[in-house]
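The records we work with from here on pair a chain with its fold. A complete example follows; check for yourself that the lines match position by position.
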Amino acid sequence: MNLVNETRNDVVILYVKEERLDAHNSAELKSAVQKLFEDGKKNVLVDLKDVRFIDSSGLGALVSGFKNAISHQGNLKLSSLQSQVKSMFELTRLHRVFEIFPSSMEAIENFQ
């Protein structure tokens, strides 16, 4: 899986550079997010602007990351969802669980 991370204002932005987040690669995302929290990071933003498709495995990896954030007294937020991915969050009602922002910049400002 192609993941790129950068830090801005104490927020680790994890860019998912894949068109699909599914059973094939979701375990890598799950472990990358888990490692960030285990390494003491408190604010993690997952930017999904390149993801055009997400399945239940991808959603499960993000839910796992969210639970991990809570257990480490941290925050996990999402940004830049394409319409098909956003529809999956609405269909599964996960848009009520996650804080989702139109852009990374808006999400970063919300961490402050």
